């Protein structure tokens, strides 16, 4: 399954590093696409301006609705008001729906995503109201822009696609997955089997797959229980 992701941003160069990472390259090599559109290339304003000060005063800058409309029209040759009917157009904003594993899975099942990165908290409200199908947050804190949040979304989504991790089974039984009833992951160990007297649990060295599976599910349940009871670990 291949996916097309378009990221609209004032800082496309941020994504050059991200696109070079192994798991991302793995997915791109299998036919998926990750491309950036620079808002500045489509602004009707001089000097590549894409953001502006808020009406009514206040701190910070906002992404302009005419700039976003220009960029979406140039990319998709369509009215952005209609676009969101046939494509997930997602604004990254701290007040949006919180990203979790279920949402990452939902997005990974889409053929195409459009991610819009604002400045600070910043979109002109009309962008959210008329052009976007979703508003998505990676946490209740304000980043300097949506770029890092978009990378987090891309990372969480792309690693769910076949081939990302090199091993087809690796993302199906990880933290918060259905295989673990949405619970946190069990503890992992690698060589050496002993370090400073700290032994790896014997069951993991036993080669007994059924018992290992049982042990892992039990640890995952314990961790879920501990998370429900604050103060306990
Ligand atoms: N843009 C700025 N802060 C953000 C956040 N926490 N989540 C998503 N987008 C953002």
Q: Which terms would index this structure?
A:
233 residues; alpha/beta; five-stranded parallel beta sheet; two-stranded antiparallel ribbon; 9 helices; 35% helix; 18% strand; binds adenine
Describe the structure.
- Helices cover 35% and strands 18% of the residues.
- The protein has a five-stranded parallel sheet.
- α5 (101-108) packs across α7 (147-158).
- 27% of the residues are buried.
- With 233 residues, it is α/β, with parallel strands linked by helices.
- The chain binds adenine (ADE).
- The site of adenine has 11 residues, from β5.
- Residues 92-94, 137-139, 141-143, 146, 149 line the site of adenine.
How would you summarize what this structure contains?
This protein is an alpha/beta fold and 233 residues long. It contains nine helices and nine strands.
Largest sheet: 5 strands, parallel
The hetero molecules present are: adenine
Question: What fraction of residues sit in β-strands?
Answer: 15-25%
Low-confidence stretches: none
Instruction: Please give the number of β-strands.
Output: 9
Order of helices and strands: EHHEEEHHEHEHEHEEHH
Number of helices: 9
Spatial order of the strands in the main sheet?
A: 2-1-6-5-7
Chain-averaged pLDDT: 92
CA-based shape: elongated
Instruction: State the helicity in percent bands.
Output: 25-40%
The multimeric state of the shown protein is: single chain
- Which structural class is indicated by helix and strand composition? alpha/beta
Gyration radius (Cα, Å) is 21 Å
Distance between the termini: 39 Å
């Amino acid at each position: 399954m291949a996916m097309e992701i378009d990221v609209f941003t004032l800082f496309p160069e941020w994504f050059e590093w991200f696109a070079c990472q192994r798991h991302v390259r793995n997915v791109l090599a299998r036919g998926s696409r990750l491309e950036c559109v620079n808002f500045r290339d489509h602004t009707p304003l001089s000097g590549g301006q894409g953001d502006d000060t808020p009406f009514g005063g206040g701190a910070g800058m906002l992404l302009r609705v005419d700039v976003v409309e220009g960029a979406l029209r140039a990319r998709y040759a369509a009215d952005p008001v209609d676009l969101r009917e046939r494509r997930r157009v997602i604004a990254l904003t701290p007040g949006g729906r919180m990203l979790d594993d279920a949402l990452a899975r939902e997005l990974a099942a889409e053929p195409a995503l459009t991610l819009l990165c604002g400045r600070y908290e910043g979109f002109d409200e009309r962008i959210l109201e008329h052009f976007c199908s979703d508003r998505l947050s990676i946490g209740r804190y304000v980043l300097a822009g949506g770029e890092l949040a978009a990378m987090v979304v891309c990372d969480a989504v792309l690693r769910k696609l076949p081939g990302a991790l090199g091993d087809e089974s690796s993302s199906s039984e990880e933290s918060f997955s259905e295989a673990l009833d949405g619970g946190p992951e069990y503890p992992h160990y690698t060589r050496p089997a002993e370090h400073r007297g700290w032994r790896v649990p014997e069951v993991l060295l036993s080669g007994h797959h059924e018992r290992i599976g049982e042990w892992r599910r039990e640890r995952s349940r314990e961790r879920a229980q501990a998370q429900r009871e604050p103060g306990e670990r």
